[in-house]
Write a structure and sequence with these properties.
83 residues, mainly alpha, 3 helices, 45% helix, binds zinc ion
Length: 83
C-alpha cells in the first residue's frame, strides 16, 4: 500500500485509495462545506499574524495580581476533622 497523497506520511485507507483516514475526513469536510470555506476557516483559526502572536505572548507575560491585604473575616471551617 502506498502513502497518503495529502499528508504523505500515513498509509492510504484502501489499496486503491489516495488518502489516509484523517485526510479523507478533511477532504469530506471540503466536499460538504466547500474547499474555499474550509480553507478560510483553517486560515482564520489556525494561522496567527504577527500582531495576534504578540498580543497572545503579552497576555501570557502579565502576572496575575495578588492582593496584598488578607481578608480578616476568614474563619477556618469547623466541620473538618483536626489531625
Ligand atoms: Zn493523510
Amino acid at each position: 500500500m502506498g502513502y497518503c497523497k495529502f499528508c504523505e506520511k500515513a498509509p492510504v485507507e484502501t489499496w486503491f485509495g489516495s488518502f489516509c483516514s484523517d485526510c479523507r475526513k478533511i477532504k469530506n469536510l471540503g466536499n460538504v462545506y466547500g474547499f474555499e470555506r474550509t480553507l478560510s476557516i483553517l486560515t482564520k483559526c489556525c494561522i496567527r499574524d504577527e500582531d495576534q502572536l504578540e498580543r497572545k505572548i503579552m497576555s501570557h507575560k502579565k502576572l496575575p495580581t495578588i492582593p496584598e491585604e488578607t481578608d480578616e473575616s476568614y474563619e477556618k471551617p469547623k466541620t473538618r476533622k483536626s489531625k
